[in-house]
Amino acid sequence: MASGIINYSLDSIRFYLTNAQKRKTIWLFVLTIISSFMEVVGLASLVPVMLVAAEPGGVQKSKYFGPVYHAIGFQEESHFLLFLIAVIFVFFLLKSLFSVWVNYIQARFTAEVGISIVKTQLGKYLNLPFWYFNDFGSSGLINSTLGVPTAYVSGILRALLAFFSEMIIVFVITIGILIYKPLLVLILTVVLLPAGMLTYRLLRSRSQKIGNRINELRPISFAIVGDLFNGFTELKLANKQKSFEQRLIANQNEVQSLDAEAYLFSLLPTKMIEMVAIIGVLTIFLYAIFFPSASTNLIALVGLFAAAAYRLMPSMNRILTALVQLKQFQYTIESLESYREAKYNESPHPQQLPLSFNKSIAFDNLCFSFPGEQKPTLRNVNIAIRKGEKIGFIGSSGSGKTTLMNILLRFYSEQQGAILIDGQPLTPQHLQAWHSIIGYVKQDTFLMEASIQDNITLGDSEVDIKRMHYAIEQASLQSFVTSLPEGLNTFIGERGSKLSGGQRQRIGIARALYKQTEILVLDEATSALDNETEREVNEAINKLSHTDMTILIIAHRITTLRECDRIYELSHGEVIAEHQYEDLIRKIV
Ligand SMILES: Nc1ncnc2c1ncn2[C@@H]1O[C@H](COP(=O)(O)OP(=O)(O)OP(=O)(O)O)[C@@H](O)[C@H]1O
């Protein structure tokens, strides 16, 4: 009945295990069997001791204990019994230490597999073609790369290990009892099995639904919290904080109740098994009443049943809990398996080649459409740029300027035409070399919650001070940095919240300069339209215009393009005109 979910889970794990880890699972399996044997031997050792203890003079009559009693030279049976109890205690102690050690090895193994799952998930999302990124929200990505693997490790991997460890114990105990007293196996099977099956049947489908629903709800909670804090000012001014808060609480209400329900489900197997154990004892009594000839063995049988149940009950409980958990966390398997198809994967990365950029960049008859879109976003774009030139791009919103730059940056690949560097087509084999010489300053520059220095170097542990000062100077950040008491070590707040729009873009420019970018793509901010910001950014751009850096600027204000050699105008994905700055200004005036 539960084989479906077990096989499904095992198949999913196989994908993540390296060959060494697969060998380790065999080793783990052997250790688990040894540990189970020790459990059963410990358990079985109690029975003869109980039997001889129950009967006066039993020790000396026993064919096993009698010789030992005499050989060691005991005078009193009570002393010998104390000795036996001490031996059993030491054995139980060793057995427990061994089983803790096995559990430790198992736990380390799950952690190891957990890491390889996080790595695989990260690799999967980092290798997604760029446009698919828009399909995911950041909360969904955080959940998929960190939340789901953690849930998988505890809900699937650990549950499976618990399931198999306990199954081995149940199996070995059952074989042991079968040899010693077959009837007891019958009683235990008739009593425990239907109860276990019933409990699992009752809980499995609801558990799966709870898991799926929690997985849907969690990222929504994260997204609302993100919006609440990131949009702090906007939501406050729009008087919307309350309604976001209410949505969050409603979402959390459901999450918390489902969590509580799942917790309750984890307790139910224990209760069910406890009830069943009592039924077991009563069944033995009933058996003794109906078959009086067997009643002399009654105490031994009840004792044995109690001993077997003592070890079987927690095992049955853990088996059931593991099965219910596997159902509840089935969603993690589905989530980990998503986006594995080839179309979502840009790997394998080909062998990388060097690239020489001494003369020119050319867009050669470039055409591009987004997947699933009928109309091409770019059509027959032909532009030739000499090294060191400053080129502007203008055009109405949606005309394709950013898409063209994303192709140049190789986030998208053209369907027709090519990008030629010194006349050579730019291929995936040049990606590394190309990315090391091209920089991109976006409208909303990515900023970390870190110091100005770390934002410029992107967290370099060893900073090239000379290069840093050049970058700050060229990006017109010098006077700003000097005015700060902590200078370059000043923290800029989350996503640069302590900076002005112009300062943020200039940090982006400084970052490109520090990287010793040879080609800079600059997407001028549309949002930061105030005069001061414009002046600050223009000052930085003008400074850069006197370097030998090749600069491509997407501009929303013509004045930004004062230093450009040429300006291309795009409309509906086509280059419709080439301008000089003076002509454009004259037209506007
Ligand atoms: N990931 C995407 N999937 C599908 N269509 C897209 C995607 N990204 C952009 N587009 C579409 O491609 C067209 C060109 O967009 P692009 O961002 O290049 O324009 P733009 O000229 O840079 O605009 P703006 O000046 O507003 O930034 C638009 O119609 C846009 O809707």
From TrEMBL:
Gene3D superfamilies per record: ABC transporter type 1, transmembrane domain, P-loop containing nucleotide triphosphate hydrolases
Compartment annotation: Cell membrane
InterPro entries in alphabetical order: AAA+_ATPase, ABC1_TM_dom, ABC1_TM_sf, ABC_transporter-like_ATP-bd, ABC_transporter-like_CS, P-loop_NTPase, Type_1_exporter
Taxonomy, superkingdom: Bacteria
One Pfam family, short name: ABC_membrane
Transmembrane segments: 26-54, 80-102, 159-179, 185-203, 272-290
Residue ranges annotated for the ABC transporter domain, each copy included: 361-588
Location, primary (coarse class): membrane
Domain ABC transmembrane type-1, residue spans: 26-328
This protein's UniProt keywords: ATP-binding, Membrane, Nucleotide-binding, Transmembrane, Transmembrane helix
Membrane topology summary: Multi-pass membrane protein
SUPFAM superfamilies assigned to the protein according to its UniProt record, in alphabetical order: ABC transporter transmembrane region (SSF90123), P-loop containing nucleoside triphosphate hydrolases (SSF52540)
Single annotated GO MF: ATP binding
Protein name: ABC transporter ATP-binding protein
Organism: Hymenobacter ginsengisoli
